[in-house]
């Protein structure tokens, strides 16, 4: 790849039997690739031996070069300047245009006397495409460990995930090795909504010592993973674990944790949450999957069905809500079912979106579960489930808002290169209005999210469950509605490119299909909005609300 080539040498390779092109001063041999080029071989032959940068960027985004570079690049033009030294983990800001002396003084004078320095800017600096602290703005929530983690996860996603996401989504499977990496990188240990469980795993997150791990680190892992623009990918990696494992960690008995948690946190064994049934979705109190105690009192025998269970198809363990008592919420318990004990059948379901997440229909037939696998107390499982919902919903909020940002970011980039009616899309007021409407909703919801995360980590768990449940439910509805809005508006901006799968509008097309997977599970928008009012009013009545 270090080969230096002159323009004249490239120009010789101008026929289909030896076809070179130049993109951004790098030289590519596309002789063999031309037959498989999705845009056709003639279009490549027309630029054979020439600089094709302009044409290339018209039809592709950065992901294509990242994916094919190692395979097709044979060198660079001898006129290309040496590459800049590698960027530090946290990229410094590009030098801003120097303000006039008077203006600089005015800015300095206007600064509050005691202002904490903001963190270094990071990423592409497109306003609203990342949270504001990425653009060097002040924030009370983040410190150097958050910035380092952000760089760590982004590097991983950009190099090892993003280039392959489309393939995995279409193939409806993410390689198991990636899940294993989630364990080895320590991310699984950090996604439980509790302290980092260093006592149960030897793996550590490179940028953050366990004792410093907080809820904002968890937010960053989920947020940066979601930049891959695939609900299927995110749910494959954290969908089952993020909601199935916390109840085990918080309410499981120590011998059970000692036996199975290390394997789960290492990424060797998979776990999922099984609550929803063919006939009981948001109405959890009415579930019917039953568990009866065996005559010798050593096992529960489980019979029933569970539906739309994320990761079920690959899971070794299932955190299952069952009916052990009478009707309603006081007859529900939570059990940890182990596949290897038998009686568990799983079938993959075909759904509209989140294709690589493994949505599953499960049948339990006389499934034996040792009584030691009871999570929480018998007939008090409703509390376990309710505590878990806040964590699940915050995860959905983080993902929905990042997906909204991806829709916005892709739109801004595309609008700055696509020309219609003699000018760039970005120069049409109607397009800027769409972008503004996306940005204002994203920022409003994200600032609410940061506040909620801060409250959740500052409060004791029961207090957080009570006081924050209503707000989190409202925020969940706000975020999924924002996501739906952004997917729609981005799709209008991309036009036909987001109607076909793959290519420049591929992320938008995929996310559009994922919208319902966020608006419905974890509590549908309608249930969430109603709950946000009912719960907030009821709780604050307890805390002395005056009407
Ligand atoms: C290293 C060189 C190139 C590679 C690896 C490459 C790869 C691809 C890929 C993977 C696609 C499928 C769509 C996508 O995923 O974005 C595509 C489509 C396309 N490419 Fe290329 N390409 C290259 C160079 C070029 C050049 C130089 C041109 C124009 C002169 C071109 C024109 C097109 C067109 C018109 C499409 C179809 C776009 C659409 O469906 O809207 N490609 N290319």
From TrEMBL:
PANTHER family cross-referenced by the UniProt entry: ACYL-COA DEHYDROGENASE FAMILY PROTEIN (AFU_ORTHOLOGUE AFUA_6G10880)-RELATED, MEDIUM-CHAIN SPECIFIC ACYL-COA DEHYDROGENASE, MITOCHONDRIAL-RELATED
PROSITE patterns: CYTOCHROME_B5_2
GO cellular component, one term: cytoplasm
Name of the protein described by the UniProt record: Acyl-CoA dehydrogenase, putative
Protein family per UniProt: Belongs to the acyl-CoA dehydrogenase family.
Keyword Flavoprotein assigned: yes
Alphabetized GO MF terms: acyl-CoA dehydrogenase activity; flavin adenine dinucleotide binding
Keywords tagged on the record: FAD, Flavoprotein, Oxidoreductase
Residue ranges of domain Cytochrome b5 heme-binding in the record: 2-78
SUPFAM superfamilies (UniProt xref): Acyl-CoA dehydrogenase C-terminal domain-like, Acyl-CoA dehydrogenase NM domain-like, Cytochrome b5-like heme/steroid binding domain
Cofactor(s), by name: FAD
Any one GO BP annotation for this protein: fatty acid beta-oxidation using acyl-CoA dehydrogenase
TM annotation in the entry: none
InterPro entries, A to Z: Acyl-CoA_dehydrogenase, Acyl-CoA_Oxase/DH_mid-dom, Acyl-CoA_Oxase/DH_mid-dom_sf, AcylCo_DH-like_C, AcylCo_DH/oxidase_C, AcylCoA_DH/ox_N, AcylCoA_DH/ox_N_sf, AcylCoA_DH/oxidase_NM_dom_sf
Annotated organism of origin: Talaromyces stipitatus (strain ATCC 10500 / CBS 375.48 / QM 6759 / NRRL 1006) (Penicillium stipitatum)
């Amino acid at each position: 790849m270090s080969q230096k080539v002159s323009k004249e040498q490239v120009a010789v390779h101008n026929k289909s039997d030896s076809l070179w092109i130049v993109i951004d001063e790098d030289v590519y041999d596309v002789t063999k690739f031309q037959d498989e080029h999705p845009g056709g071989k003639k279009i490549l032959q027309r630029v054979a031996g020439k600089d094709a940068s302009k044409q290339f960027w018209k039809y592709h985004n950065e992901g294509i070069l990242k994916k094919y570079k190692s395979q097709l690049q044979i060198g660079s033009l001898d006129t290309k300047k040496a590459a800049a030294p590698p960027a530090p983990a946290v990229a410094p800001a590009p030098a801003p245009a120097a303000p006039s002396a008077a203006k600089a003084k005015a800015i300095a004078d206007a600064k509050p006397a005691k202002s904490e320095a903001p963190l270094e800017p990071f990423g592409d600096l497109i306003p609203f495409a990342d949270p504001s602290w990425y653009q060097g703005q002040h924030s009370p929530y983040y410190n150097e460990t958050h910035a380092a983690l952000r760089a760590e996860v982004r590097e991983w996603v950009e190099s090892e995930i993003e280039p392959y996401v489309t393939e995995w989504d279409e193939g409806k499977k993410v390689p198991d090795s990636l899940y294993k990496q989630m364990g080895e990188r320590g991310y699984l240990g950090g996604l439980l909504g509790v302290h980092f469980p260093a006592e149960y795993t030897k793996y550590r997150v490179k940028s953050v010592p366990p004792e410093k791990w907080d809820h904002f680190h968890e937010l960053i892992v989920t947020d940066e993973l979601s930049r891959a623009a695939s609900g299927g990918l995110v749910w494959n990696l954290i969908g089952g674990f993020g909601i199935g494992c916390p109840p085990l960690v918080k309410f499981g008995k120590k011998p059970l944790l000692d036996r199975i948690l290390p394997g789960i946190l290492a990424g060797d064994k998979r776990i999922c949450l099984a609550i929803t049934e063919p006939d009981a979705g948001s109405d959890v109190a009415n579930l019917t999957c039953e568990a009866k105690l065996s005559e010798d009192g050593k096992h529960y025998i489980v019979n029933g069905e569970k539906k739309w269970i994320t990761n079920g198809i690959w899971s070794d363990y299932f955190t299952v809500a069952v009916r052990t008592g009478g009707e309603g919420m006081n007859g529900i318990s939570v059990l940890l079912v182990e596949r290897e004990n038998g009686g568990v059948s799983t079938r993959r379901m075909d759904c509209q979106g989140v294709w690589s997440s493994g949505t599953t229909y499960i049948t339990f037939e006389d499934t034996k579960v040792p009584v030691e696998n009871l999570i929480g107390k018998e007939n008090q499982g409703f509390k376990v489930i309710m505590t878990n919902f806040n964590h699940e919903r915050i995860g959905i909020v983080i993902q929905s808002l990042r997906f909204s940002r991806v829709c916005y970011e892709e739109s801004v980039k595309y609008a700055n290169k696509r020309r219609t009616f003699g000018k760039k899309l970005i120069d049409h007021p109607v397009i800027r209005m769409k972008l503004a409407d996306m940005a204002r909703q994203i920022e409003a919801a994200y600032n609410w999210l940061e506040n909620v995360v801060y409250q959740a980590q500052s409060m004791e768990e029961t207090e957080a469950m009570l006081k924050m449940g209503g707000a989190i439910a409202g925020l969940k509805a706000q975020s999924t509605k924002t996501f739906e809005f952004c997917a729609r508006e981005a799709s209008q901006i991309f036009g036909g490119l987001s109607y076909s799968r793959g290519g420049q509008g591929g992320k938008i097309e995929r996310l559009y299909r994922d919208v319902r997977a966020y608006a419905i599970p974890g509590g549908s928008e309608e249930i969430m909005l109603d709950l946000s009012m009912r719960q907030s009013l009821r709780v604050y009545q307890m805390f002395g609300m005056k009407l």
